[in-house]
Amino acid sequence: MNSTLAILAILDGISYAALVFLVSVGLSLIFGVLRVVNVAHGSLYAYGAYLAATLSIAVAPISPLLTYPALLIASVVIGVTCGGFIERFLLRPVYGREEVLQLLITFAVFMIMDNLQRLIWGVQPIFASEPLKLLPNVRVFGVTYTSYQVVLLPLVAIVTLVGLRYFLRYTLSGAVIMAVTEDREAATAIGIDAQRVYLLTFIIGATLAALGGALALPTTSLVPGMGTDMIVLSFAVAATAGLGQIEGTAVTALMIGLARAFVIYIHPEFEVLVPYLLMVLVLLVRPLGLFGTSKARKI
Amino acid sequence: MADVLLSARGISIRFGGVVAADNVDLDVLDGESLAIISPNGAGKTTFLNISTGYLRPQAGAVTFLGKDITAQPPRTITRLGIARAFQIPQLFLDQTVMENMLIAAASHARRWTPLQAMSAMPERTAMERLLDLVGVQGYAERPARELPEGQRKLVDIALALALKPKLLLMDEPTSGVASSEKLGIMDILTSALAQEKVTSVFVEHDMDMVERYANRVAVWSAGKIQKLGPPAEVLQDPAVREQVIGI
Amino acid sequence: MPSRLQPMTVAAVIGFTAAAVAPLFVPSWTTLVALILAKAIVVLGIIVLLQAGQVSFGHAMFFAVGAYAAAFWGKYLGIGDLALYLLLGSVLATLSGLVVGLFVVRYREIFFGMLNLAFSMVLWSLLEKMFHYTNGADGIRVARPTVVGMTFSPDAFQFVILYVSLTLAVVAFALVQRYLDSPLGHMLRAIKSNETRLEYLGTSARRVLLAGYVLSAFLGGIGGVLVAVIQGIATPEFGFWTKSGEFVFIAILGGVGHALGAFAGAAVFEIVRFFAAAMLANAWQLILGVVLIVIILFAPNGLIGLVTRSSRAKGDN
Question: What is the pLDDT of residues A18-52, one digit of tens each?
């Protein structure tokens, strides 16, 4: 492997990791606060992408620049409507029941959303790459790459990481979320509405997933299986980092992104194997994940 | 001179700032009934936890019949002949009382068979007798979760007895049992233990029980054994009366 | 909850008889019924593990091992006998169950689930990408095997595989029932209610769970061989996380308190899929999703729970 390929691999890894991080951190946040594994998370990612595509294709003829707000709007719409609906009407009735039942509810939601997705948007691949094409290419250490992938995506990921950290640690809402996560009874006793916290957290997590999908749109073609693949991948990243770990998820996403990128250039048939093999190895040694603490509720 | 069954030497353990045991030596003699009393929260359960492998002391060693059991897990220690009854009854709440007992019997007999019905095990008669002994035979076919606290306590003890132990460690055996029944149960229990030649150690805070059923009392306070002797002597000691009994 | 209720035995007899007889009247149902029985065998394994309170989200791996055992035999050794496929598949699945089990029985709850998922996805990625050996996503065709030396026409074979699946299903059902009634079965349930106490009785919870895990892997392998033969193909999807989810779905749908739940759940699942796919071509997943949500919200003990609840209300128990 020469240096050009190595640099390419690094850039591939970074841009891929940025997207995976957005989805994984949403999943991790939801688990950290609600203790629910949201199997529908991949569908939220896919819907974010598909809606972004629909909006992009609609506004692109008017002005390609509008595709940027289109991405954002799509994420928020999916996050708030789908995320809100799922938490409020499907998950809330089963809080307090066995955790596997809560997980199965989200699995059922995944089945429904996956089916609806095919009915609404069909099974043919969809392309909408304006946002990527609008931005110039850059040269990084002699390698040409799109600035969308190597500047915008990592930027969004970093802003999200910092924003989440700031939100959780330095704002009142964030403190409320942390309180409910730490001890729901105590938080309720001092007047915190745990139900609203759960709703808010789920919506944030869902929006992040949808954002990941919307931002992924310009880089790839949308196909029916994208949600199904993303849920298990984001879960692998989140679990390897330690469910509920925000910063840890960023590091793990980067690690897995880079590992995968290098493997693609060296031994392409092992590409899909990488995240899951890493997951097995990490969980065997540290079941709480690389950055998980024994108070696994902490976020 | 009775043989030493269980011997703790130099046991030290602290939890954060609390010193639960500070270089403690304690022997349990074969055939005796040893009571451990202490002011509240002074870690009397700690001795049971260490002797059964649930906790490892930070210093010191415990031997049972000459074998070092300090670092052994509860499972191994149980097989050597030490059984434990808990302060809060630890039962298999989703299964019937008889099923609970049969699990204990099957475990003791190493009957880990996959295809024979547990309900038809030969040990069933012996388990019925044990349930009879502690007076809960009427509950045999009820799920354990339906039992009131006192009855759960008795089943908990019966489970330990099902293991045919040489040493039975009980954590407040009559707490939760109706006062009118305490004496009756302890009478039956002690005679059964004597008959089966089972040595017992029990943590207790009811001094009546201690007086009647222990032949030695150890006072555990501030991480040390402050006094050790027959109940008549220990329970009359003014320091003990002040600290532990609160008179 | 007792594992053998008299009404259950009656229901089982009725169910299995119906499975044997109905396709004689409606031959187009033959494959459907065989598929139901084969999948139910796998789900029996999930139910065994659920007794210990553990959910495996990677059970598809043993299903895939069984399926690919049959497929590889055909690919590398030529057409073999169903008995040999079953033998190879079950042995390989049991061995992999032992190996994976040795690792996973140290964990509980979500960690148990996650680690199983991880192992199954590792297997899936190998099946999907080791194109040279596995033919990748297209899978490997499984030609009709001989059965105890005899070759059958396609029409006759449909019935043969049905009755083989039925026989294996009845045996598996009886086996799991007896297992759950045995000391090991009760100890498995003891892990769910009070694992510490089990240890304090002198029994290793890990070993008890491992025994259950190996049994469930065995059942998964058998089911995998059967499905591969019934459908004539083994694909990487057999080992994908959605397949594991499907098995858990069926277990919860049918009701995990009784082995019969595996059959009730598999029957409803496959029948809904069959008819929904026929009538509303593209909405069967949606319908099944809604069914699952309804069951979880309103009938948490599954279909079996509904039946026992109503029979208890009628005073049958």
Answer: 999 999 999 999 999 999 999 999 999 999 999 99
| Separation in Å, CA of C8 to nearest CA in chain A | 24
Give exposure, B104-124, as e/b (b: 16+ Cβ within 10 Å).
bbbbbeebbebeeebeebebb
Q: Please state, in angstroms and rounded to a whole number, the distance separating the CA atoms of residues C308 and A146.
A: 62
| Number of domains observed in the structure of chain B | 1
pLDDT in tens, A59-97: 888 888 888 899 999 999 999 999 999 999 999 999 888
Instruction: State the residue range of the domain holding B92.
Output: 4-245
Name the average pLDDT for chain C: 91
- The percent helix, strand, coil of chain A (3-state, each to 5) is 75, 5, 20
CA distance C15 to C8: 10
Helix, strand, coil % (nearest 5) of chain B?
Answer: 40, 25, 35
Instruction: Report the gap between the CA of C45 and the closest CA in chain B (Å).
Output: 15
* DSSP annotation of B147: S
Q: Tell me the residue length of chain B.
A: 247
B43, B184, B225, C53 from B217: Cα distances, Å: 16, 21, 10, 43
Residue A280, Cα to own-chain centre: how many angstroms? Answer: 21
B114–C201 C-beta distance less than 8 A: no
Instruction: Enumerate chain C positions whose Cβ falls within 8 A of a Cβ in A.
Output: 55, 103, 107, 109-111, 114-115, 117-119, 121-122, 124-126, 128-131, 241-242, 245, 248-249, 252, 282-286, 288-290, 292-293, 296-297, 300
Instruction: Find the mean pLDDT for residues B124-140.
Output: 91
CB-based contact B114 C184, cutoff 8 Å:
yes
For residue B69, the domain's CATH number is 3.40.50.300
Structure tokens at B177: 């049992």
pTM: 0.92
Q: Give the max Cα distance, chain B.
A: 61
Nearest-Cα distance to chain B for C158, in Å, is 33
Structure token digits, residue A106: 């989200």
Q: Which residues of C touch B159 (CB under 8 A)?
A: 197, 201
Among C179, C193, C207, the residue with its CB nearest the CB of B114 is: C179
Q: Which amino acid is at A107?
A: F
Contact C252 A104 (CB under 8 A): yes
Q: Are B112 and B106 in contact (CB under 8 A)?
A: yes
Q: What is the CATH number of domain A3-121+131-285?
A: 1.10.3470
Question: CB-based contacts of A96: which residues, under 8 Å, 6+ apart?
Answer: none
B-contacting chains (≥3 CB pairs under 8 Å): C
Q: Which residue has tokens 């990748």?
A: C136
> Cα separation of B102 and B124, whole Å?
7
